[in-house]
Write a structure and sequence with these properties.
- Helix content is 36%, strand content 18%.
- By secondary structure, the chain is of the alpha/beta class.
- The protein folds into two domains: 305 residues, Ribokinase (UDP-N-acetylmuramoyl-L-alanine:D-glutamate ligase); 194 residues, Aldolase class I (TIM Barrel).
- The strands form two sheets. It has a ten-stranded mixed beta sheet.
- β16, α15 and β17 form a beta-alpha-beta unit.
- α5 crosses α7 and α8 runs antiparallel to α9.
- It is elongated and about 80 Å long.
- It starts with a helix and ends in a 5-residue tail after the last helix.
- It binds the ligand Cc1ncc(COP(=O)(O)OP(=O)(O)O)c(N)n1, 4-methyl-5-hydroxyethylthiazole phosphate and magnesium ion.
- Magnesium ion binds next to loops.
- The site of magnesium ion has 4 residues, from loops.
- Keywords: ATP-binding, Kinase, Magnesium, Metal-binding, Multifunctional enzyme, Nucleotide-binding, Thiamine biosynthesis, Transferase.
- Pfam families: Phos_pyr_kin, TMP-TENI.
């Protein structure tokens, strides 16, 4: 026991913060160290400057020497290399130039040698919460193509973006302030082009005309690995609950260091953003006021309360989801859920007792697809089973299937309103927190969580989720929907999957590659039903 505690702390991912010290303890390096630690990583710091700061004033800012700045970075890289870096307050332009060059040479060299990628999140701190100017004149263009994400608030966005390059924006009156949401979106998209990185423009402090009860951020996403192409090259609006509190000192620092900490643990950018936003919301809700000015965020560990998380909508001209829609609820357990491609196997698994089953025809789409779907639907009725049709939602609708299973991509093309009003159950795939939140917005009948383990059944853009994420997904949504784990699940994995408390599992090869699929179904079902979910 002592050993496992020791090794888990030794193995913590190392996340750096390159930022200024806030002597008041609410923001800067101090907030970052607390956040990185709270979210399960080991924090290291390279301090750019000292600030003589309280909750009401910033009285002095003093940069460290160039030698000290460089030496902190080199010293850390030698022994404590990062998996992710958060950059906060930079004290002067020469620090910007020096750091950009260090990222380009030293960090890139390290990444190449180690064969890894290090996420770099820049929070372009320009003003303290008390309103004092910390550094609003920096030119961040040396960071072009070196950052993963930049997280300006709306005031910083206006100061950063070169609006001369976008006449439409200048014409809409955006010389010094961004007036409305459309201005902010244009400016964020422009900044993303100018710095060649993703942009999260935070509306928490100042959301010009957007809703009073929401903290809305604009997420401009470029190309990104590990997530469906559907969620790349798009602009999203992330709307979280606005907590009525003045204790927001350090919220930007907390957000950016939380994003770095979550990315450092292997989560995709989209997930890191929604998790970090939920973390900040929870931190503000439990905030406190140690001085007479704005108070500071509490550290509330990994957010697992769904109400903290933002809803997601698209702001670009691409496809979007219908609002307020709800599908037929499934109250009984799904049971062990076979996903099969042919009718003979489907029939034999129903005969073996399958209560939920899916027809998933991918290869060799034949002329008789409609006939196969009709026969499957009829078999489902004969055996009083929940028969889902994958992909072919029009045919499933036409012939009154019990349910339809759709991937995230299909959600934007299928007629969801028609499916819901036909009282057909809907199962939706998900491969991340981000996709889970999107699925939750259309309240499907169940949500599939995949792929948990490596699979050869299908080429996936995402990495296997693993048991830890599965456990987190169950914590987040397990009381709202039936949750089904899928991907690489076989007899050897059953017990560990059961311990995550996921409700049920869907399998392909564990049955299709068995000599006796019906026998395998009975054996797996018996084991799945008898394993105890408690560890
Ligand atoms: C139960 C279950 N979960 C996930 C999937 C995958 O569906 P989808 O994302 O639509 O991918 P394809 O199956 O169409 O390749 C599923 N079919 N069933
Ligand atoms: C269709 C699908 N979606 C996510 S994983 C997967 C395939 C699961 O197949 P297997 O059980 O053989 O790994
Ligand atoms: Mg599909």
């Amino acid at each position: 026991m002592a050993n496992s505690t020791l090794s888990s702390s030794v193995n913590k991912p190392i996340v750096w913060t390159i930022a200024g010290s806030d002597s008041g303890g609410g923001a800067g390096i101090q907030a970052d160290l607390l956040t990185i630690h709270d979210l399960g990583c080991h924090p290291c710091s390279a301090i750019t400057c000292l600030t003589a700061q309280s909750s009401v004033a910033v009285n002095l800012v003093e940069a460290v020497s160039p030698q000290m700045f460089q030496s902190q970075l080199d010293t850390l890289l030698h022994d404590l290399p990062p998996v992710a870096i958060k950059i906060g307050l930079l004290a002067n332009q020469s620090q910007v130039v020096m750091l950009a060059s260090w990222l380009k040479k030293r960090l890139a060299e390290y990444c190449k040698q180690a064969g890894i990628e290090v996420s770099v999140i820049l929070d372009p701190v320009m003003f303290a919460t008390c309103g004092d100017n910390l550094n609003s004149t920096l030119d961040f263009s040396p960071f072009k193509s070196l950052l993963t994400l930049i997280t300006p608030n709306i005031t910083e966005l206006a100061a950063l973006v070169d609006i001369k390059a976008k006449p439409a924006l200048a014409m809409s009156g955006a010389e010094s302030t961004l007036v409305d949401q459309a201005d902010c979106v244009l400016a964020a998209e422009l900044l993303s082009e100018q710095l060649n990185c993703h942009v999260l423009a935070k509306g928490g402090d100042l959301g010009p005309t957007w809703l009073r009860d929401c903290a809305q951020d604009i997420f401009v996403c470029r190309e990104e690995k590990g997530i469906s192409t559907l969620h790349q090259g798009r602009t999203f609006l992330l709307s979280g609950p606005r907590i009525n509190s003045d204790n927001t000192h350090g919220s930007g620092c907390t957000l950016s260091s939380a994003i770095a900490s979550v990315m450092g643990q292997g989560y995709v950018l989209h997930d890191a953003i929604v998790i970090a936003k939920a973390y900040v919301t929870a931190g503000i809700a439990a905030s406190f006021q140690p001085g007479s000015g704005a108070g500071t965020l509490a550290r509330t560990s990994w957010p697992s309360d769904l109400t903290l998380y933002p809803s997601i909508s698209v702001l670009d001209s691409g496809p979007s989801l219908p609002g307020s829609i709800k599908f037929k609820p499934i109250v009984e357990r799904l049971g062990l859920y076979p996903v099969v491609a042919d009718l003979t196997l489907l029939h034999s698994l129903l005969e073996a007792g399958a209560k939920t089953i899916q027809l998933r025809i991918k290869d060799g789409l034949t002329d008789d697809i409609e006939q196969q779907i009709c026969s499957a639907i009829q078999l489902g009725r004969d055996y009083k089973a929940k028969l889902f049709i994958n992909d072919h939602w029009q045919l499933a609708l036409k012939h009154g299937a019990y349910g339809i299973h759709l991937g995230q991509e299909d959600l934007y093309t299928a007629d969801l309103t028609k499916i819901a009003s036909a009282d057909i159950a809907l199962g939706v795939s998900s491969h991340s927190y981000f996709e889970l939140l999107i699925a939750h917005q259309i309240a499907p009948s169940y949500i599939a969580l995949g792929h948990i383990f490596p699979t050869t059944t299908k080429v996936m853009p995402s990495k296997p989720q693993g048991l830890n994420k599965l456990r987190q997904y169950v914590e987040l949504l397990g009381s709202h929907y039936p949750l089904v784990a899928i991907g690489g699940i076989d007899e050897s994995k059953l017990e560990a999957v059961k311990h995550t408390r996921v409700h049920d599992i869907a399998v392909v090869r564990a049955l299709t590659q068995a000599e006796d699929p019906a026998g395998a179904f009975r054996m797996l079902t018996q084991k799945w039903e008898t394993y105890d979910a408690t560890e």
